[in-house]
Every structure is written in structure tokens, then in C-alpha cells.
């Protein structure tokens, strides 16, 4: 976890005031000890008016420990914090009370500039600079061994990475060979650039030529970072969005997973586009098929991949193409097999005179034509699909309520299809709030469905547009990131670039255009602003909050369309 729980210049009274005003029961922070040099104090909020301050002993080579004589010792302060957050409790040796450690109360980062990478380790910084940088590339990270300080990491000509300690005191920022203190980290880095070359304590000569930018963003700084991304870089003559998207295009070649199954003769006609195929390793395989060669009806193939979040928040997606006339049965078989109860359709059936998705549902609702079953029901192999009701939520999206029946067993299930109508192929929606409402609506229904069954069961969201990569990838990426903010609170870090990398490692080509990539940022910014988060940001710290409880309540579409 990141080390922003470390507050460099506060005393015990100030720590209590911060925890009282911005924390909740179980919130904590770490600060320098006022009584012991090179040691620290863990300050915990137990109740609104009760706080505990526990000494963290720094034993040098022996590591860090809570109190004295503890059997648990840790190489770094970050490892100690990680350990007790995982346990969520800590016993106070003085009175035997149990302290709950759940919510790190973070301090503001020293800069919003993208050269700052937070609390990554020295090894991670070295790998980043060697993999993505070039001679003269640099970044700044927090020091893990000296939490009050920072580290300037620079790649040299021989591919070696030098780590230079940046000392931070009440006077400001300085370094070995500096004869002055600079009031801000940005001013310090600018001074380093002017002074180049810099000679460190081991006589290494380093030059700072170009920053290696981070795509990680803390929610508290999102609006600032968003505005900075529009600024053209003086090193690359392109803005931050273009720089990140171009980097995505360049690393696509690293995802060299096989896509052989989609090329087999019996499966070729099942692909809407011959070059957009699912990876073999995570494609959805239809059960009860013999895979008889050259027999499409017995193939377990469907152009779909299972998508999961790196954050492990429990939600799974089935990313697939818009069904073809000859794949509708496979599509419904997948829905039944995977127990998916929500379908997100991000396309029209036809756009600009070209088919984008074959209509895989009956033409009329049972309400509209109750006497003509041929209009409101359709059968795909052993699955009967009945369109019970259609609800127009707004001009931009509608919801269809289906009843699925397995004709072999007479088992029935309800399935809900959310069709978004205001997102053209390769384009982006004009009404961002309607897009966010769409996402919130299907999540309300998803939560209601999940609340009715044991937590061990999961219900994947099926998402498709036409090819199943552009608009599909954008909706999945936005939903993943909003989930993290809702669950982790407004102090969390998000990484849109890394999220898209993860999606592309699970389905090729997710997020097709730079415009779609930029839209991810726009949608997330609007989500944050719609919750008035910007007004909740203090100049020094952020309140830890759960957005699930602060978001504007919406009526679930389940209530409006259920029968």
C-alpha cells in the first residue's frame, strides 16, 4: 500500500485534531516521534474523543517494532503498517485494549506533477526506468527506509539507475551537494535540472533530461492532473492523453497470447470481424459441446472473454461481440451457462446503414401483443426467450426485461438488458451524466441481485457493442474505476492507464481510440465532481469516505421493469 499515511510535520495534538475532523473510528496516521529521534508514533482514533498514541521503535538494522521487545519486527515502516492493516487490530501493551486499524488518514502529496510516483519501492523504480526510460529519465518516489524523505531516481548512460536521497525538513527540500533549501518539491527539481550534472556522495554523475511520468492519480488530485494532461509536453510535443494512449499502442505487442481457436474453420463464421478474436487462455467455452471438427453447431467457441479486475472487488465481466444471426443461440447459451443476469448493449442494431448487432431478442413485448406468442417469444435451441417489458429510462438508454426458460427442465430466470443508444462507433457520448446514470442504474440492479444470493456466487455482467472492444472496453474500464473509488474512498489512488493495460491483456484492443481513452478521464472527473468531492478536499488531508453511502440515491431499474 502507499505510504501517504505518514504526516511529516505534526505533533500529537495536531494528529488528534486531524483524526477527529477528517477521520472515523479506526482511522490512523503515523508521524515522527517528538520524544525519540528516528522513531515514530502511531496515532489511532478509537472513538470521536478517544485517541491512542503508540510508539514505533526504530532499531536500525533490527527493523521497526511496535513498542519495545516485540517479537514482530519489520524491515520498513510500510511493511509494519501493511501487516497491522491486514490484521485490522493491534493490542495496546499499556492497558491491553484492542485498537482497530482500518482507515489510513492520508496527507496531501508534495506535488501533482507526474514525475512523482508515490511510495513505489526502489526495485520498482529501477525496473520502470530501465523498461520505459532512457538516459536522463528521472522520477521521484517516497523513501521507504526514511519515511520523512524522498528519493530522486535517475537512469544513467550505462542503464544503471541512481537513487539520490532528497532530505525534507521544516526548512524545505535539499540534497547532498546542495547549499540551500527549496520550499517546494517542484522548485527543488527545477533547481536540480538547472544544476546538471549532479554529483552524488559516491561521485556518480547524473543528468536530469526528461521525467518518466506516472499515470497513478490520487482522487484528491484528479482535477489538477486532468487539467495538466491537456498541456503539451515540452519533451514530446504532445499532451498527456496522447502520450499515454500512444504508449498503450506501443505495448500492445507484449500481449502475445494465442488466438488460434477463433481461426479454426468451424469458428471463422462466428466472428463479426476476422481480425478481432478472443485470446484462447480466457475465452468463454460453451459446455456440452463435442467440438467435432468442421461442425460449427458442436463447437464450444464464442467470441467472448472473461474479464476480471486486478483489484479483486469480486465483479466479473463477459466482453463479447454483438451477436450475428448464426451466433444468437451461442450467445443465450453463454448467458444461461455463466448465470449472467444483466446484459449491457452499447450499440444500435444498425449504424450508418451497417449492421452492428443482430437483434437477438423478440420484436415485441408481451404487454404489447399478449395474444401473439411468436412476437414476444423466440426459441434458441433449448432456451426460450420472452420479452416481458421495455422501459425507456431516458432518451439515451432503455431497459428490456426478459424471461429465460430452459425447455428441458422448465427452469426460469429473469435477465435484464440495458441498451445505451447515444454512443456511436469510435465516438463518445455527448451527455456524460446520462452515461454515469446508466452505470449507476445497472449497478443498483446488480447489487439487488447479489444481495439475494450467497456471497460465494457471482453473476458476471455481459457487455457488448459491435466488435466488443471499443465501447465495451470503455464501459468496463469506467465501471472498474468507479467501483474502486466507491469501495476504497476518496483517498485512494486510481490508474486509468494501468486499468486499460489490464483490459488489453484479457481482450485484444480494448479502448480503440484516443478519444475513447480521454473519455475515461472525463467520465471519472464528472463522477467525482457530481459527488461534490472537490468541496470536501482540505488543503492538507482528505477525509476517508465511502461513496456507496454518499452517492445520490437512484431508483433501481429492477423496480420499474419487474413483473
UniProtKB/TrEMBL annotation:
Q: Return one GO MF term.
A: phosphotyrosine residue binding
| Every SH2 domain range | 5-105, 115-212
Keyword Ribonucleoprotein found = no
- What InterPro entries does the entry give? Non-rcpt_Tyr_Phosphatase, Prot-tyrosine_phosphatase-like, PTP_cat, SH2, SH2_dom_sf, Tyr_Pase_AS, Tyr_Pase_cat, Tyr_Pase_dom
Q: Which residues form the Tyrosine-protein phosphatase domain?
A: 241-527
Name the Pfam families for this protein.
SH2, Y_phosphatase
Q: GO cellular-component terms in the record?
A: cytoplasm
Using the record's annotation, list all stretches that form the Tyrosine specific protein phosphatases domain: 436-518
Signal peptide start and end residues: none
Q: What is its EC number?
A: 3.1.3.48
User: Which Gene3D superfamilies is this protein grouped with?
Assistant: Protein tyrosine phosphatase superfamily (3.90.190.10), SH2 domain (3.30.505.10)
UniProt keyword terms in alphabetical order: Hydrolase, Protein phosphatase, SH2 domain
Q: Which GO terms describe its biological process?
A: cell differentiation; intracellular signal transduction; mitotic cell cycle
- Could you identify this protein by its name? protein-tyrosine-phosphatase
> What is the scientific name of the source organism?
Brachionus plicatilis (Marine rotifer)
Amino acid at each position: 500500500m502507499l505510504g501517504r499515511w505518514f504526516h511529516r510535520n505534526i505533533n500529537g495534538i495536531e494528529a488528534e485534531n486531524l483524526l477527529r475532523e477528517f477521520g472515523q473510528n479506526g482511522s490512523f496516521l503515523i508521524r515522527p516521534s517528538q520524544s525519540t529521534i528516528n522513531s515514530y508514533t502511531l496515532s489511532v482514533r478509537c472513538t470521536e474523543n478517544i485517541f491512542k498514541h503508540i510508539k514505533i521503535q526504530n532499531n536500525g538494522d533490527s527493523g521497526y517494532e511496535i513498542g519495545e521487545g516485540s517479537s514482530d519486527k519489520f524491515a520498513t515502516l510500510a511493511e509494519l503498517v501493511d501487516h497491522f492493516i491486514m490484521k485490522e487490530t493491534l493490542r495496546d501493551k499499556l492497558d491491553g485494549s484492542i485498537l482497530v486499524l482500518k482507515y489510513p488518514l492520508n496527507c496531501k502529496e508534495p506535488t501533482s506533477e507526474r514525475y512523482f510516483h508515490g511510495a513505489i519501492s526502489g526495485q520498482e523504480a529501477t525496473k520502470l526506468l530501465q523498461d520505459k526510460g532512457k538516459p536522463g529519465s528521472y522520477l521521484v518516489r517516497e523513501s521507504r527506509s526514511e519515511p520523512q524523505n524522498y528519493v530522486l531516481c535517475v537512469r544513467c548512460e550505462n542503464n544503471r539507475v541512481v537513487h539520490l536521497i532528497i532530505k525534507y525538513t521544516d526548512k524545505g527540500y535539499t540534497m547532498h551537494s546542495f547549499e540551500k533549501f527549496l520550499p517546494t518539491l517542484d522548485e527543488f527539481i527545477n533547481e536540480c535540472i538547472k544544476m546538471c550534472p549532479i554529483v552524488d556522495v559516491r561521485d556518480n554523475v547524473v543528468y536530469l533530461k526528461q521525467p518518466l511520468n506516472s499515470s497513478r492519480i490520487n482522487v484528491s488530485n484528479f482535477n489538477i492532473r486532468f487539467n495538466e494532461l491537456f498541456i503539451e509536453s515540452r519533451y514530446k510535443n504532445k499532451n498527456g492523453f496522447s502520450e499515454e494512449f500512444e504508449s498503450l499502442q506501443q505495448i500492445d505487442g507484449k500481449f502475445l497470447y494465442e488466438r488460434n481457436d477463433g481461426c479454426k474453420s468451424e469458428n471463422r463464421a462466428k466472428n463479426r470481424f476476422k481480425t478481432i478474436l478472443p485470446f484462447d487462455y480466457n475465452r468463454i467455452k460453451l459446455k456440452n459441446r463435442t467440438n467435432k471438427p468442421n461442425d460449427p453447431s458442436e463447437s464450444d467457441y464464442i467470441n467472448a472473454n472473461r474479464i476480471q479486475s486486478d483489484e479483486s472487488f469480486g465483479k466479473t465481466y463477459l466482453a463479447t461481440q454483438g451477436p450475428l444471426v448464426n451466433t444468437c443461440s451461442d450467445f443465450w447459451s453463454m448467458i444461461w451457462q455463466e448465470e449472467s443476469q444483466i446484459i449491457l448493449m452499447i450499440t444500435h442494431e444498425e449504424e450508418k446503414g451497417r449492421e452492428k448487432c443482430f437483434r437477438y431478442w423478440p420484436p415485441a413485448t408481451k404487454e404489447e401483443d399478449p395474444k401473439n406468442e411468436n412476437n414476444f417469444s423466440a426459441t434458441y435451441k433449448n432456451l426460450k426467450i420472452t420479452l416481458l417489458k421495455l422501459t425507456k429510462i431516458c432518451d439515451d438508454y432503455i431497459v428490456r426485461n426478459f424471461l429465460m426458460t430452459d425447455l428441458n427442465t422448465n427452469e426460469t430466470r429473469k435477465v435484464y438488458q440495458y441498451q445505451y443508444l447515444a454512443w456511436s462507433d469510435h465516438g463518445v457520448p455527448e451527455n456524460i451524466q446520462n452515461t454515469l446514470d446508466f452505470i449507476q442504474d445497472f449497478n443498483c440492479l446488480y447489487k439487488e441481485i447479489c444481495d439475494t444470493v450467497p456471497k460465494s456466487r457471482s453473476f458476471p455482467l455481459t457487455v457488448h457493442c459491435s466488435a466488443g472492444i471499443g465501447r465495451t472496453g470503455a464501459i468496463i474500464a469506467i465501471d472498474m474505476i468507479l467501483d474502486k473509488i466507491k469501495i476504497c474512498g476518496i483517498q485512494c489512488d486510481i490508474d486509468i492507464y494501468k486499468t486499460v493495460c489490464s483490459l488489453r491483456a484479457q481482450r485484444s484492443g480494448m479502448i480503440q481510440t484516443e478519444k475513447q481513452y480521454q473519455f475515461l478521464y472525463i467520465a471519472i472527473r464528472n463522477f467525482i465532481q457530481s459527488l461534490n468531492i472537490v468541496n470536501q478536499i482540505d488543503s492538507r488531508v482528505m477525509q476517508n469516505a465511502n461513496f456507496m453511502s454518499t452517492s445520490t440515491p437512484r431508483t433501481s431499474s429492477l423496480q420499474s421493469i419487474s413483473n
